[in-house]
Amino acid sequence: MRIRKLSEITLAAIMSLTILSCSKTTMPYSDVVDQKVDSILMLMTLEEKIGQLNLVTSDMDVTGPFIRKGYEEDIAKGRVGAIFNAYGAGYTRKLQELAVNNTRLRIPLLFGYDVIHGHKTIFPVPIGEASSWDLEAIERSARVAAEEASAQGLHWTFAPMCDIARDPRWGRVVEGSGEDPLLGSLIAQARVRGFQGTDLSQTNTILACVKHFAAYGAAQAGRDYHSVDMSERQLREVYLPPYKAAIDAGALSVMSSFNDLNGIPATASKYLMTDILRNEWGFQGFVVTDYTSIMELLHHGVAADTLDAARLALNAGIDMDMQSGFYNSALLKLLNEKKINEEQINQAVRRILRIKFLLGLFDDPYRYCSISREKETLLSNDNLLAARDMAKKSIVLLKNQNNLLPLDKNIKTIAVVGPLANSQRDMMGSWSAAGDWPNSVTLLEGIKNKIPGSQILYAQGCAIDDSNTGMIDEAVKIAKRADVVILAVGEAAWMTGEASSRASLDLPGVQQELVERIYSTGKPIVAVLMNGRPLTIGWIDQHIPSILETWFLGTQAGNAIADVIFGDYNPSGKLPITFPRSVGQIPIYYSMRSTGRPFDANNKYTSKYLDESNDPLYPFGYGLSYTTFDYGEVELSSSEITETDTLDISVSVTNTGKYYGREMVQLYIHDNVASVAPPVKLLKQFQFVDLKPGESKKMVFKLTVNDLMFYRDDMSYGFEKGQFTVYIGGNSRDVRTAFFSLN
Ligand code: GLC
Fold first, then answer.
1. Pick the residue with more confidence: 18 or 235?
2. How far does residue 724's CA lie from ligand 1's centre (Å)?
3. Which residue of 187, 345, 546, 662 has the fewest CB atoms within a 10 Å radius of its CB?
4. Is the dihedral of CA 202, 203, 204, 205 positive or negative?
5. How far is residue 656's CA from residue 423's CA, in Å, rounded to a whole number?
6. Which residues, at least 6 apart from 70, have a Cβ–Cβ distance to it below 8 Å?
7. Does the domain made of 629-742 have the CATH classification 3.10.129.10?
8. How far is the CA of 324 from the centre of ligand 1 (A)?
9. Is the omega angle on the peptide bond into residue 160 within 30 degrees of 0, that is, cis?
């Protein structure tokens, strides 16, 4: 009892120190925070230290293979440092009280959750938000998510997902920002800013988590959890930049990925978790594994037993064990067998306790558990408006033959058809976490909201993914009665996200038959795609006059799509990932190398397929508008620069159509000759321009030698003098060119 008394007095002294000084700890790490952490660490037993390294799921939500019962008892016994999949001001308070009132040192829990694209107000899936290329809107989306998640007792989100992905067979394409390292990096930074704000101790900010480190998106054959094998060059040029960008933006936790990288599972990779993450990048936060990843070292075949797996993970630099329980069961034994040392455990505990201090949890463990804030924040009108704005900007117009769109609001009869036309659940997309799908607005409802005076007919036509064609006749019947058909096809939300790889990218089930039967009516058709990955929709591209890519747009989906269909918003989205014509082309992305035999239609012996084009169905950066934009000649401030110069690259963009519109102007660079075969082009900068009909604006980009750097033949990062080609346009294919040299 006496020891307990002493520790309580000591802890009370520390807490008072905290209360006095907490407001001063604005820097991520300062001596004050470190002193407080060390003063607690010295009081902790080994069991208490090891308990802090254990992250377990509640049974409120399921995001992995299994849930361990008895987590509440583990909390009360100090065997848990953090909980995930538990939210709600009341429930998190209950679990926090278990830790604070029952454990000797009253160390508060950390509460984490997958707040991937909104919390209660669900925003477009991340690949949809990425289609907006609007970094401010994306930051605001993350800000709203942080406001709502923190109002429900959460301190930590397992986002942003920073995995570059170039294989749409992989289901988690939906969670990322597409194929390009620059766009992926800038979006990752926007999300970190939105989540963490400038001060983690504020009750409306949450800790970000950079995942899945690293290169998870390159899973072989697009099959989830599969091995990743790539050169150091590709790892550093393509896959690492978004993770680093997120860390440079201040993200203070990282999640190890399931995959092995060149044979070494990320969770056991000292190269990734220590050499790169800490020694090269200076990362100061903590590293958590993905779900049961330490246990999965057994399945990878790099660990013979629990002790082996826990030792490998700790030695690699893993601080927190998500859900495997291996740290709790093995670290003490490993210590006694001198296979690890106590300082390794202390270091992991320090990293975690620092974050708890920064979040203000030692100051007040219940500061995020406010019932009143929960009530006033969730699904507020402002949040719904932000979600609708983000959704509109996420829509990509892929085709609009004869300007069928926008439709007239006075249209007499409209048929809304398809398995996704009235599906509230699917509008939320995957990883919609705390989102309640009954709150979502379907396409049918959005159209009814928009044109209440018209006759709106509806038929499901078929299921998303079964062989029943029995409902198609009914759909054809109502289509024949309409002036225009809005046809909503695509994937079910559960077909995308984790553990959702597909070997085919065709429309599932009998949807293609539905499309062709509706097409046979001869009615004008607007195809509305709802999907989490590029689909091979060549037939639709050839036959359907207007096509909107809407991904899964979240709570306000139907209203946002109706805004675009009826012209209240002129679509401005641009694809962040290439659409292949067929699965056989994968991987296909805009920044490929030329090869020694670039395609030549007149020469058999060049790089091509006998049965398919080399070209994508839609290229990276592609998206149309209801208006048209004309690009003038590209002008350069000089045709020659040195490494200290800035090159001004300008182009005049004119709105030559009849609608106000937003164009996302993209600047690409090609290094004509380099010590490493250069990609045919690389995105370097992009800017929005909003133009009234007839209006022109001169866009200016400022290029420096930093934009020309790459991993040279000796893997040093730098530039090389020589000739460069500038490409500017509204996508990666249709571009204006200019030339300059770096001397
Ligand atoms: C899942 C996912 C990861 C998620 C975690 C917690 O398996 O891979 O992205 O954050 O487990 O739910």
1. 235
2. 42
3. 662
4. positive
5. 38
6. none
7. no
8. 13
9. yes
Cite the residue boundaries of each domain of the chain with CATH code 2.60.40.10.
Answer: 629-742
Q: Label the pairing between strands 682-691 and 661-671.
A: antiparallel
Q: What would the mean pLDDT of 296-313 be, rounded to a whole number?
A: 98
Active-site residue numbers?
290
Q: Is the pLDDT of residue 20 over 50?
A: no
pLDDT reading at 18 higher than 60: no
Closest listed residue to residue 143, CA positions, set 84, 96, 197, 188: 197
Q: Which helix (H) or strand (E) holds 715?
A: none
Q: Which residue's structure tokens are 């699965």?
A: 583
In angstroms, the CA 128 to CA 117 distance is 10
Task: Name the pLDDT band for 23 (thresholds 50, 70, 90).
Answer: very low
Q: How far apart are CA 128 and CA 389, in angstroms?
A: 12
| DSSP state, residue 272 | I
CB of 175 shorter than 6 A to ligand 1: no
Cβ distance 363 to 18 under 8 Å? yes
Q: Whose CA is nearest to atom 3 of ligand 1?
A: 290
Q: What is the DSSP letter of 620?
A: T
Does pTM surpass 0.90? yes
| The ligand 1 atom nearest the CA atom of 175 | 9
Average confidence score pLDDT of the chain: 95
Q: Is the CB of 64 under 6 A from ligand 1?
A: yes
Cα gap 113→57, rounded to integer Å = 9
Question: Is it the case that residue 17 has pLDDT exceeding 60?
Answer: no
CATH 3.40.50.1700 range(s) for the chain read 393-585
Buried b (16+ CB within 10 A) or exposed e, 127-151: bbbbbbbbbebbbbbbbbbbbbbbb
Distance between CA atoms of residues 19 and 447, nearest Å: 54
Q: Cis link prior to 587 (omega < 30° from 0)?
A: yes
Q: What is the mean pLDDT of residues 101-106?
A: 97
Q: How far is CA 470 from CA 466, 467, 630, in A?
A: 11, 9, 48
| CATH hierarchy code of domain 393-585 | 3.40.50.1700
